[in-house]
Amino acid sequence: xxxxxxxxxxxxxxxxxxxxxxxxxxxxxxxxxxxxxxxxxxxxxxxxxxxxxxxxxxxxxxxxxxxxxxxxxxxxxxxxxxxxxxxxxxxxxxxxxxxxxxxxxxxxxxxxxxxxxxxxxxxxxxxxxxxxxxxxxxxxxxxxxxxxxxxxxxxxxxxxxxxxxxxxxxxxxxxxxxxxxxxxxxxxxxxxxxxxxxxxxxxxxxxxxxxxxxxxxxxxxxxxxxxxxxxxxxxxxxxxxxxxxxxxxxx
Length: 251
Fold this sequence. Notes:
mainly alpha
């Protein structure tokens, strides 16, 4: 009992250490993002013809915090993934250590890729469609608050959901999930993804459709990648099982 309590305390201390490093990294990246908010802002609105408005001084500060937070989240992802890897490393086999370490850069790249997909493809398509509905009936003045909220709704979910394939590969490589389970859960996963698409898009069918299709494709890609990793894992395990009796026979 004493040894178990000591192990639990040691694990909690290690977890606390990893969380502190992650939080410190987030704060540092937030400060850097806050310093360069003006440059980020100018880049985000460079293709937007209209001047954004604010309705009060607090809106300016909120925009600074929002943009700095997005930068900080993106930059902290690899740090968080590496700290998580260090935390679970003692419980992993040598081959699992190498495999899981290779997923850390992929997490960051897929997150950035998801943001780019949402910003360059989904966001302009949905924005143009909604502006087209006005058909000259309205004066389209945008507040910076509403504009960036809409931009985040069109980009941030993709940054998170684009990590689904690599997370699935990781969980498959350590034996937590397999492609057959994912196939059985397909209809439930589709329902959840459709609900997510409806929640993050404006209330119109076209926007829902444009966001739903990529999410469903991501799930299918995740299943395919899970199959690939699962088959390789089975072959490797079978090879190791064949090698083990031979080594025992030599002994």
